[in-house]
Amino acid sequence: MDHATLATQRDRHPAWRLLASPHAPLVASFLHRVFVAPNVRVMSEADLAEALEDELFALREQVGPEAYPKGARDYLTDWAAPDKGWLRKFYKPGTDEAQFDLTPATEKAIAWLLSLTERPFVGTESRLLTLFALLEQISAGTEADPIKRVADLRKKRDELDVEIARVLAGDVPLLDDTAVKDRFQQFQQLARELLADFREVEHNFRLLDRKVREKIALWEGAKGALLDEIMGERDAIGDSDQGRSFRAFWDFLMSSRRQEELSERLDQVLALPAVAALKPEPRTRRVHHDWLEAGEHAQRTVAQLSQQLRRFLDDRAFLENRRILDLLHGIESKALGIRDATPSGTWMPIDAMGADIELPLERPLFAPRVKPRLTDLAIAAGEDDIDTARLFDQIVVDKARLRSAVQRALRRQPQITLRELLDAEPLHQGLAELVAYLELAHAGDGSNALDGLRALVDEAVEDSIRWEARNAAGDAVMREARLPRVIFTR
Predict the structure, then answer these.
(1) What dihedral angle (degrees, nearest 10) is formed by the CA atoms of 275, 281, 287, 291?
(2) CB 457 within 8 A of CB 484
(3) How far apart are CA 240 and CA 247, in angstroms?
(4) What is the Cα–Cα distance from 23 to 256, expressed in whole angstroms?
(5) What is the number of other CB atoms lying within 10 angstroms of the CB of residue 160?
(6) What is the enclosing helix (H) or strand (E) of 487?
């Protein structure tokens, strides 16, 4: 926190630049409304520009047209420029439409502005208890002496026995309204901070991927040594501190039992009069679903970065011409050297592409096609009576019926696995019906919501699905399919 560091942060940090900008009320309020409040991770340029145009129209009606004279797309391009850094502009593979996402620095600035609002009261008890609980977990988790660890466990057991005896005797201590409000305020704050952390986790993953790419671009040794170096660090993203912490969080949250427990406890807490008096945000009820969506987006980002890194290595493995390698190495080195200070004007001319020359004599000669010669043998018709009507028998799976079955199950519970659904409503049309269920899950995967349904696929867990079918002789046989766990959610 010295003067030089703060002066540098004021000039370079996007969050500080946002707070010091004269357009800070527009930027912060608009980005909070379209990204933070609804937990939107990525938005296309057309949708974001349309929303900003509506916002600008309303503001010009209030404060005058001279307040914000530029168009919505110009403002978005300006906010995503390197000198601002409030939005991240990128293109998805296979698309030519720009996409926008909030940067971690912008979300930090918006969170700080939200903290300026007046709270009902400042609670300290729950924070103190959280600090003690964290110290206790660290101390217990790092104790290597079995005797001390067993002694601590027995002490906790004795305390639980004493508390159980008190409750059975009629002494049931309850939290007062102040303690309930204090703990619920801390829960809301931590829930919002957890959603904000996902963008920073993705940003750090991209930085790790960028460092590996820079090492590849500046490598001057042999190709074998480069591959040994990169393969030794191919798990750098997943094995980093953030990667391990995120994987542990994802495994914990993907547990069906944990999700059901979270839903039950949220319903119980939100029904308390003291909590209802605080008027919590409506999204608090489904905050764990927001965690799942944000976590799934981070998972896809890590998988995409790993896939791009592998493709980058594969491309370099096929480059055998030494001269081309030297040219590419020079271009990459110069690009990295001027990344922070791009020169103006034309500084690297590119020669025109040469014409492709195809000599006539390089074309292959004409080769006549060989005509098959049929024999004079006559084909004798058999005497078996074949039922040709079976050629017209087709199995038609009613997807509307399957979608209704999933919706009925989700009215009773917030989520259900495909195996649990088929245990309650077995397959009637065998493998074709199972494939139709998987097609519904694919249609509801990620952002492609299908009639309010969403589907998640847990690759780490394998489910076995069995159904009864008929063989060629008409006898009943059992079929079995093994596939990753498919989870339907609201």
Answers:
(1) -140
(2) yes
(3) 10
(4) 45
(5) 10
(6) strand 476-489
Instruction: Report yes or no: 76 and 87 within 8 Å, Cβ to Cβ.
Output: yes
Which residues, other chains included, contact 475 with Cβ-Cβ below 8 Å and sequence gap of 6+? none
Instruction: List, in order, residues 6 or more apart from 77 with CB less than 8 Å away.
Output: 89
Alpha-carbon span 153 to 438, nearest angstrom: 46
DSSP string of 292-319, one letter each residue: HHHHHHHHHHHHHHHHHHHHHHHHHHT-
Six-digit token string for 393: 């028998």
Give per-residue burial for 42-55: e unless 16+ CB within 10 Å, then b: bbebeebbeebeeb
Other Cβ atoms less than 10 A from the Cβ of 400: the count is 8
Q: Find where tokens 């039992």 sit.
A: 257
**Consecutive 10-residue runs of the chain (490 residues): their mean pLDDT?**
82 86 89 84 88 89 82 89 87 82 85 73 62 73 83 87 86 78 76 71 71 70 61 56 66 73 80 79 70 69 66 57 74 79 69 72 77 62 61 74 87 87 86 87 60 78 85 78 87
Q: What is the rounded CA–CA span in Å between residue 243 and residue 202?
A: 10
Which of helix, strand or coil describes residue 479? strand
Using only C-alpha atoms, the chain has a radius of gyration, in whole angstroms, of 31
Sequence-ordered list of residues with C-beta below 8 angstroms from that of 389, at least 6 positions apart, any chain: none
CA-closest candidate to residue 464, choices 478, 489, 481: 481
Contact 437, 418 (CB under 8 A): yes
* Separation between Cα atoms, residue 54 and residue 233, nearest integer Å: 47
Chain-centroid distance of CA 36 in Å reads 15
Query: What distance in Å separates the CA atoms of residue 278 and residue 33, rounded to the nearest whole number?
Result: 21
Compute the half-sphere exposure of residue 61: CA atoms within 13 Å on the CB side of its CA: 6
Say how far apart CA 330 and CA 336 lie, in whole Å: 10
Give the SS3 label for residue 482: strand
**C-beta neighbour count of 134 within 10 angstroms:** 10
Phi, psi of 445 (to 5 degrees): -75, 135
- How far apart are alpha carbons 59 and 35 in whole angstroms? 19
Those residues whose C-beta lies under 8 Å from the C-beta of residue 451, and which sit 6 or more positions away, are 403, 407
- 3-state helix, strand, coil split of the chain in percent (to 5) is 60, 10, 30
